[in-house]
Specification:
The structure holds two protein chains of two kinds.
Chain A: E1 6-12, H1 18-28, E2 34-41, E3 45-46, E4 49-58, H2 62-77, E5 80-88, E6 90-93, E7 97-105, H3 108-125, E8 128-134, E9 137-140, H4 145-157
Parallel strand pairs in A: 1-5
Antiparallel strand pairs in A: 2-7, 3-4, 4-6, 4-8, 5-7, 8-9
Helix pairs in contact in A: 2-3, 3-4
Chain B: E1 2-7, H1 9-15, E2 19-23, H2 31-39, H3 43-50, E3 56-59, E4 62-64, E5 75-79
Parallel strand pairs in B: 1-5
Antiparallel strand pairs in B: 1-2, 3-4, 3-5
Helix pairs in contact in B: 2-3
The chains are: A alpha+beta, B alpha+beta.
């Protein structure tokens, strides 16, 4: 069995410094030849008009457990060296960072695919809910069928990229 | 059987509170039975569980389907489909 995967998960209201987080991940997994990261951000425009604020609610306890489970599934499917997951909650302004998913591995394919896999699972299994507030008033964001579809592609492809 | 029920997001706003402790009558053991029982509380609840919106459930922090069974002391949660990321 290879060395345990470096895994760090945070659910927090505070912003994160992506550069510092990636440096930490690199330092924790010096064998890595590839680092992939995804950052999700608040759009300044929603379907209904200009957006001022996004409020993210979550289910403390279950959120952390769900993210842990998603990361463990990724580790079972790809030879990863490290994972850094941050998801913000609370009130966020337009263009704020929401989520960081970063992966390291020996070669790029595992890091690329595992990063996409974790985002697709996070979108459909982690208990976060977004509410948009803007000049249109406020509304809960509806779940998208395309997100569920993206997850199901991984289930069909059993570890391969969902092409 | 006594359980705690939590409500989140749109559902929390509809029912107007975030958690409650309830003592279930004999025979209410599954999520689907719990939904039916809560639906008898009135129109708001009836619409919530029998309307067009999907209501997801978790027991003790794990997503479950309608046929999942509850035990004494469980934490049950109801929420809309998730929209994080």
């Amino acid at each position: 069995m290879s060395a345990p995967v470096y895994l760090k998960i945070s659910v927090q209201p505070e912003d994160f410094d992506t550069g510092a987080e990636l440096q930490q991940l690199k330092a924790a997994t010096p064998q890595a030849g590839a680092l992939v990261n995804f950052i999700g951000m608040v759009r300044d425009l929603s379907a209904d008009g200009k957006l001022d604020e996004m409020v993210i609610e979550h289910y403390p306890g279950m959120t952390e457990a769900a993210l842990q489970r998603i990361a463990e599934q990724a580790c079972q499917r790809w030879p990863l060296l490290g994972i850094r997951l941050i998801h913000r909650v609370g009130s966020l302004a337009a263009q704020a960072q929401i989520v960081l998913v970063a992966t390291t591995s020996l070669h790029r394919q595992a890091a690329f695919e595992a990063c996409a896999f974790m985002m697709d699972y996070l979108k459909t299994e982690a208990p976060f809910w977004k509410k948009e507030i803007g000049d249109f008033g406020e509304r809960w964001v509806e779940a998208r069928a395309t997100d569920e579809h993206a997850k199901q592609q991984w289930q069909k492809n059993n570890g391969k990229s969902p092409t | 059987m006594k359980i705690t029920i939590l409500y989140f997001a749109r559902i929390k706003e509809v029912v107007n509170y975030s958690s409650e402790d309830v003592v279930l009558p004999e025979g209410i053991e599954t999520i689907i039975a719990l939904k039916s029982w809560l639906s008898t509380r009135g129109e708001t609840w009836q619409k919530l569980f029998n309307g067009s919106g999907v209501v997801r459930a978790a027991i003790n922090h794990e997503l479950v389907d309608d046929m999942a069974t509850m035990d004494e002391g469980d934490e049950v949660a109801f929420f809309p489909p998730v929209t994080g990321g």
